[in-house]
Amino acid sequence: MEYSRTINGKDFLVVLEEEGENLCRIQVDGRQMEVSWLEIGKGLIFAQIQENGLTRTLKIHAAKQGEAFEVFIDGLARTVTDTKSSRRKAVGQAGIQNTITPSIPSTVSRIAVEKGQKVEKGQPVIVLSAMKMETTLCAPYSGEVKAVNVSPGDRVSAGQILVEIEKHENP
Amino acid sequence: MFKKMLIANRGEIAVRIMRTAKEMGIKTAAIFSDADQKALHVLEADEAVHIGPAEPKESYLAIEKIIDAAKKAHAQAIHPGYGFLSENAQFAKAVEDSGIVFIGPPSKVIAALGDKTCARQMMQDGGVPVIPGTTTASLDPKALAEQAKAVGFPLLVKAAAGGGGKGMRVVEQPQDFAHACQSAISEAAAAFGNGAVYLEKRLARPRHIEIQILADSHGNVIHLNERECSIQRRHQKIIEETPSPALTPQLREKMGAAAIAAAKAAGYVNAGTVEFLLDSDNSFLFLEVNTRLQVEHPITELVTGEDLVRRQIEIAAGKKLSLNQEDIRPKGHAIECRIYGEDPQNGFMPSPGRILLFSPPQGPGIRHDCGIYEGFTVPTDYDPILAKLCVLAPDRPQAIARMKNALADYALLGISTNTAFMHAVLSSAEFERGETYTDFLPELFSSWSPKTENDALFALAGVLAQMADLKSPAKSATAGKWRPATPFETLGPWRL
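The joint structure predicted for all components is written out below.
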């Protein structure tokens, strides 16, 4: 079996050959290992990995988040997605990065630009307040403000386009 | 002693206060907003009173509603926790006037010390050295800009009613002043209901060191040594420790004496904290008095063996302190890491949402003050602090090692937290050497990102998790080949 997985934009091909109950040979990232594992209750897996003649144990916490799995090993949490579904999302996210939008629900504190104004890349555009902290969203590129879609005090949701900026052709 | 008290707060601190109340045989009443119906502090309380919508102004900051709730619950005392109304003199006054005991200093003392400019004046008069700056607060950006020229850059814009780093901005150059000033004023107005700010000179490389004090209503004041709180991000402390690696016994005694002098100058009663900046030449300058229980109080409790909340309740009930200064003999080294629901990889944006899995560390010398549980949805409306992880060990190197292990074991999935970031901070050579200054994080960790060298194992783990998920739970428990590794198999260097 082959599994394509993506972590933080990087793809990994996991080739898995079952050899028995909870026992398999695995190839990943140019590494060969023999892995046996034990699930202790929901979300906790102990995996024993034999690689280059050495054995070690990984304590894995995992939880399903939609189509992806969130995985915690040794102090670090990672989202492991199926590469196919993460490709679909990446296209959407690339679109969001070029827009002025909050990543979580927020309240508009102040707006630093007006319609028609020219802005430089990195210039503060709008100040939001979420969880009692103020965050400034800056212009992702130089251009002209085409529309300001919100007013101070407005509650806005994640992904909502707050200010529209038309990119200059020759930056 | 009180029969019942109301906790006018939420999250981990409300849960922590209830723990002591239960030990003392005092019944507890919680308050909650629409966003907190299933919050841990509501579930842990003996009873809970709904006080309004999620918006703090309509609930956790609504003085009348909270006092009504206390009356409804027949509570004889109110503990304000930290944040929210804890340092609001109007609230303390309203509680006093209602005939309920406020667990904290008298409202007059809170008012005097809570106005940071007034406190600076008071300390100056009492002979305590203060940081150069203005002694009046203002809402007028133009007047402030004029004052800024006199104070000089770099400087700090600080909320007169402030605390906890809210409504505070560093301004390096004159051209950044207007934006920073506006931003501080509106953040202060939102957080404290008072947007007035003042200016303070910014010291080059100070440490933030605070002294815990206890004062009873019979004139006895003692201190419980220092906490070093220099590891700050955007003026919010994230890692604290005691004792400070910077203090000699002589300096500790001098700062302790100054803190007691400050408390006496203010007529202080109850638990409080006198904050100082320690300059590179070992001179210390008064910063402010926090007239409440501090977030980081557990590390003082760990090294002294005292329960500060119990002391607060006893003092509020009029009891005399049963401790002398000589009784305070701290032992060992304690560190606290604040667990925030935020994403260090994404500019530390708050990361609210549902907690899918939660398995905090356990073991000797570990204390976990927690306001969340697996399945809980962290709301977007409040400060993103989820819990506090503290350790106690015989000395500083052992405490660091214990905390690093505990952070590596802090399994939380569903939302992002700062645990890996704090692990990296504790692992740095600078932290190990005790070179902690308030600019530590911006200087050394401004472009931190988690290591990716084990991502292949995460990919593999993700596949195993999916396979386990597809199996029936009964079957997965009876795994075939799993057996412990023998010492022979684990010999030699690993590639992790």
